[in-house]
Design a protein that fits this description.
Layout lengths: L3 E6 L5 H14 L4 E6 L3 H7 L5 H10 L1 E4 L13 H8 L4 E7 L12 E7 L9 E5 L2 E4 L5 H18 L3 E6 L7 H13 L6 E6 H10 L6 E4 L1 H14 L7 E5 L4 E5 L16 H13 L3 H16 L13 H10 L39 E11 L9 E2 L2 E8 L2 E4 L11 E8 L5 H13 L3 E11 L2 E2 L8
This protein binds 1,4-dihydronicotinamide adenine dinucleotide.
């Protein structure tokens, strides 16, 4: 049988302990995989001076498949998350996270079998953030037609392959009308190509409430990045916690499988880590590599072990990582026969599609009838800026603060911060030269501008939001 080469990143904290458990189980199950170890994370940064060495990315690109243990990311400072960087650098645009009840893992709900497909590179996770004043920070939420279409299409293809019946788009398009509105629009457009699958949508706060009340009602969820991150952890909680939640990051030709949980520094090195999440991720990886019977045998061993009450402490058991690993190894069946406990994570023994199977490249809309009506200039100001009413072609239409109109009209009784949006619309044509002159004028008035946005309209419809009260 062909030997597959797979990149293995052992990561930080409990990462090496759970990675070693998977390697041992795979060895005992005679899985035809040769591991190529590569480095990433805090320890890599300290020992090799690089949190994500280029050789690690090269190894993933060469082998096409990687298994990654969690890495530590400092909060509020330091390097960007290694995960986010890997996802973005390799364009791993879909994150597939199954949440399925396991035998012997006591939870409030039985028979949960959810599949979550999260957009993985856009949204606020594009990581575009700026301080606008010393007291105001800004993050741009980027949602694109191509990215949203790609993840929706991958989700529906996966549903079709696995025989799932219903796909639900999760969003907040009632508030984020343009960004989440675009995500939903793309989902609905793609759904038309999958008439046999029920497609619907739900607002993210509602889905959270529904999931913690009646999770069995959902089949598959497709979400933008930030909601996907949060909701998939919630789903992990429903089926037994972070210790049992696997995931795979998929691009057109690469795949990186990883546990949902982090590096758990609080229990690192104590033999307490639960390897299930990484093991289930590795099983997902085996299906991706079409090693179906190996996937099935190892998953069966895991389910038999749990059903026998052999568990780590986080699941209410008293086994160490090593003891639990040995338990699984002792349960690996030689052949797969009918077994009451064998319920694979992805219920059909079918290979999940590669993203490249998910049909044509989504097309960008062209810019016909796309017109710039004016600009928003964001300025620093202690109190309402004394802005010019008109300048050349431009007329000041509104000034707003944190999205609420504060001029013209009565000043609302709200907290004002030192960052105002001055909206100028233009009569007639204008270009960069006119914008530059307006900016220089604003500077001459004594205001530091921090950010400029163009106000576009398409076929006469405005493609930007109005301020509250505008
Ligand atoms: P965490 O997931 O590492 O830990 C949360 C809690 O769950 C802790 O009490 C931990 O002991 C427990 N836990 C997690 N995995 C477990 C396992 N396999 N077995 C038993 N108990 C487990 O989240 P936290 O503490 O917020 O983050 C720690 C570090 O991990 C941070 O630096 C964070 O940035 C990083 N992180 C990395 C991820 C990745 O590489 N995929 C994902 C999430 C966080």
């Amino acid at each position: 049988m062909e030997n597959y080469k797979v990149t293995l990143i052992k990561g930080d904290g409990i990462g090496p302990e759970i990675a070693d458990a998977v390697v041992e189980i795979f060895k005992c199950a005679n899985v035809p995989i040769e591991w190529e170890e590569a480095y990433a994370g805090l320890e890599s940064s300290e020992k090799r001076g690089n949190v994500l060495p280029e050789e690690t990315l090269d190894s993933i690109k060469r082998n096409k498949v990687a298994l990654k243990s969690p890495t530590t990311t400092p909060v509020g400072k330091g390097h960007k998350s290694v995960n986010v960087t890997i996802r973005k650098k390799l364009d791993l645009f879909a994150n597939v996270r199954p949440a399925k009840s396991l035998p012997g893992v006591k939870t409030r709900f039985d028979n949960v079998d959810l599949l979550i497909v999260r957009e993985n590179v856009e949204d606020t996770y594009a990581g575009i953030e700026y301080y606008q004043t010393p007291d105001v920070a800004e993050c741009l939420k980027i949602i694109t037609r191509q990215g949203s279409t790609a993840v929706a299409r991958y989700g529906f293809e996966l549903a079709r392959t696995l025989g799932r019946k219903r796909v639900t788009c999760v969003h907040k398009a009632n508030i984020h009308k343009l960004t989440d509105g675009l995500f939903l629009e793309c989902f609905q457009e793609v759904a038309k190509d999958f008439p046999e699958i029920q497609a619907d949508d739900i607002i993210v706060d509602n889905v959270c409430m529904q999931l913690v009340s009646k999770p069995e009602q959902f089949d598959m969820l497709v979400l933008p990045n930030l909601y996907g991150d949060i909701v998939s952890d919630l789903c992990a909680g429903i089926v037994g916690g972070l210790g049992v939640a696997p995931g795979g990051n998929i691009s057109n030709d690469l795949a990186v499988f990883e546990a949902v949980h982090g590096s758990a520094p609080d229990i690192a090195g104590k033999g307490l880590a639960n390897p299930i999440a990484l093991l289930l991720s590795a099983i997902q990886m085996l299906r991706h590599l079409k090693l179906l019977s190996h996937a099935h045998r190892i998953e069966t061993a895991l389910r038999l072990t749990l059903a026998a009450g052999i568990k780590t402490r986080d699941l209410g058991g008293n086994c160490s990582t090593q003891e639990f690993t040995k338990g699984i190894i002792s349960n690996i069946p030689v052949e797969i026969e009918s077994d009451p406990l064998k319920t694979p994570m992805m219920e059909k023994q079918q290979v999940p599609p590669m993203a490249s199977d998910a049909a044509a490249e989504p097309k960008a809309t062209n810019n016909v009838n796309w017109k710039c009506d004016g600009i928003d200039i964001f300025v620093q100001s202690k109190g309402l800026p004394k802005m010019t009413e008109s300048f050349e072609n431009f007329t000041l239409t509104t000034i707003s603060n944190r999205g609420t109109k504060v001029y013209p009209g009565t000043m609302p009784d709200i907290l004002l911060v030192d960052w105002f949006t001055c909206r100028f619309t233009a009569d007639g044509e204008f270009g960069d030269t006119e914008i530059a002159r307006l900016l220089q004028h604003v500077t001459a008035l004594g205001y530091e501008w921090t950010h400029v946005e163009k106000l576009f309209s398409k076929d006469g419809a405005i493609m930007y939001t109005k301020a509250q009260g505008e």
